[in-house]
């Protein structure tokens, strides 16, 4: 290797080492290694310089000096960089705008759920909960829904393929929160006054007001002498408290296997009516299924569609927006 090459290599190696220095001590070590007067690498090269021929010497001498200077300069600036870090404190410009970070907020459906629970709580209802994966017994049998009832059609339910697994028969994603009525009554003697909110699943055709997953709020009131007019009062109060004094609500005669008589509950929707739930007086067969005596107690039950109440409250025209996860939509609420 010629002396020139050796100098190139020396310089490159020194600059790499300097670049890697993180502390003043390392800078000092590198300085001694590459520039040290006694044993530094430059010292070895200097002795080679002495051996160069007189013709070569000026060129080598010049290169020797530029290499030395390059290393000195690099050491100096690395040293400054380490010892006086130009960190955020030095650079902080108080006139710049701050970093804005966005606050999240509860989804409109979550807000509806907590408000409805709140209102129900003020009406004296406590909160109950039940599983989303249910068995045939709680979703149908105990609710007086006979074996051949169309509501049990596999096309209208999400049955699970582990079917027939449990004691209560086939498993499915619950199609209604009425299951919770049964679970509560099974475990609690009357009187009962609960609401339960949660998801329900139905393979409906999805459109602006239907979804295959939505939320319901189930209500159950069992005591002696509960009447249909109690039911209407509670539903009216729920609707007014959540949607305002001027909300128009109506009850239509209807049929559910687990209530008798039964009604469907509608609220005004533009120039029309929208069904927001079902309700009725708990059928004596249901009371018997949970071991209650229909001669001693009576009660009402209702199931309200939470998304539709939410849509009415916030003026949302399409239920799909609620599960679309589009922040441009959600951030309006
Ligand atoms: N479970 C019924 C439904 O999902 C609603 C309902 C609840 C009706 C309670 C009567 C009593 O449609």
Short characterization:
With 333 residues, this protein is an alpha+beta fold. Helices cover 41% and strands 21% of the residues.
Descriptive key words:
seven-stranded mixed sheet; 2 domains; 10 strands; binds phenylalanine; 41% helix; 333 residues; alpha+beta; BirA Bifunctional Protein, domain 2; rod-shaped; 12 helices
Overview of the structural elements:
By secondary structure, this protein is an alpha+beta fold. It has 2 domains: 3-91; 108-134 and 175-330, BirA Bifunctional Protein, domain 2 (2-Layer Sandwich), CATH 3.30.930. Helices cover 41% and strands 21% of the residues. The protein has 12 helices and 10 strands. It has helices at residues 3-20, 24-35, 41-51, 57-83, 88-91, 108-122, 136-139, 178-187, 228-243, 284-289, 306-314, 327-330; strands at 126-127, 133-135, 158-159, 171-173, 192-201, 213-223, 249-256, 259-269, 272-282, 298-305. The strands form 2 sheets. Strands 1-5-6-10-9-8-7 form a 7-stranded mixed β-sheet, sandwiched between helices. Strand 8 (259-269) and strand 9 (272-282) form a beta hairpin. Helix 2 packs antiparallel against helix 4.
Which helices and strands, and how do they pair?
Layout: H1 3-20, H2 24-35, H3 41-51, H4 57-83, H5 88-91, H6 108-122, E1 126-127, E2 133-135, H7 136-139, E3 158-159, E4 171-173, H8 178-187, E5 192-201, E6 213-223, H9 228-243, E7 249-256, E8 259-269, E9 272-282, H10 284-289, E10 298-305, H11 306-314, H12 327-330
Parallel strand pairs: 1-5
Antiparallel strand pairs: 2-4, 3-4, 5-6, 6-10, 7-8, 8-9, 9-10
Helix pairs in contact: 1-2, 1-3, 1-4, 2-4, 3-4, 6-11
